[in-house]
Amino acid sequence: MNLFYIILAVLAIVVFWVIATFNGLIRSKNRVDEAFSDIDVQLKRRYDLIPNLVETVKGYMTHERETLVKLTEARTAAMANQGASLADREKAENALSSTLKSLFAVTENYPELKASQNFMQLQDEISDTENKIQASRRFYNGNVRDFNTCVQTFPKNMIAGMLNFHKYEFFQAAEGERQNVQVKF
């Protein structure tokens, strides 16, 4: 009779451990999904600000239409990749970031544009948004790190494998973003 209770107690402990492990993995997975959604929120903010920035710049600048066209095209490409894979989205977002950097470099050649209150406000908003996107990406990567650690460490990896939990990919900078930005006049 005692052996029966011992086996029942061990079985109950194992069942509770499996349940707790599963629930922990679900919590971690949901944090990663939430963090990725936070990136989307900031990207949406960026997409909403860019048309305002372009319209403000158009009023002051006629010589640099190519930069404005590239910015609009990069925004359109980034928005078109909403449902794409993480790698495709990274590529489009990195192209948009690069174009924004070139726009801010162009403004250095146009002091009257730089002095415009509207442009300065929009430039501050874009810079703030870029900082928030960067923070969201770091938050996402931190949650991915925590989730991947859970999925890969023993003994949780056994439960994760049986329940089909897989590693997430980190959000990484594209090759072009790893190089120094050159501002040329």
Total beta-strand segments:
0
How far apart the termini lie comes to 88 Å
Helicity range of the residues?
Answer: over 70%
CATH topology: Four Helix Bundle (Hemerythrin (Met), subunit A)
The overall average pLDDT, rounded, is 79
Low-pLDDT sequence parts: 181-185
Radius of gyration: 24 Å
At CATH's second level, what is the architecture?
Up-down Bundle
Query: Could you say which overall geometry the principal axes of the C-alpha atoms support?
Result: rod-shaped
CATH class: Mainly Alpha
**Strand percent estimate:** under 5%
Q: What is the subunit arrangement here?
A: single chain
Number of domain modules? 1
Tally of contiguous helical segments = 6
Query: Would you list the SSEs in sequence order as H and E?
Result: HHHHHH
Structural category: mainly alpha
Major sheet summary line? none
Descriptive account of the structure:
The protein is an all-alpha fold and 185 residues long. It has one domain: Four Helix Bundle (Hemerythrin (Met), subunit A). It has 6 helices and no strands. Helix 1 runs antiparallel to helix 2, helix 1 packs antiparallel against helix 5 and helix 2 packs antiparallel against helix 3. The protein is rod-shaped, with a radius of gyration of 24 Å. The C terminus is likely disordered.
Short note summarizing the structure:
The chain is built from 6 helices and no strands. The protein is mainly alpha-helical and 185 residues long. The longest helix has 59 residues, at 2-60.
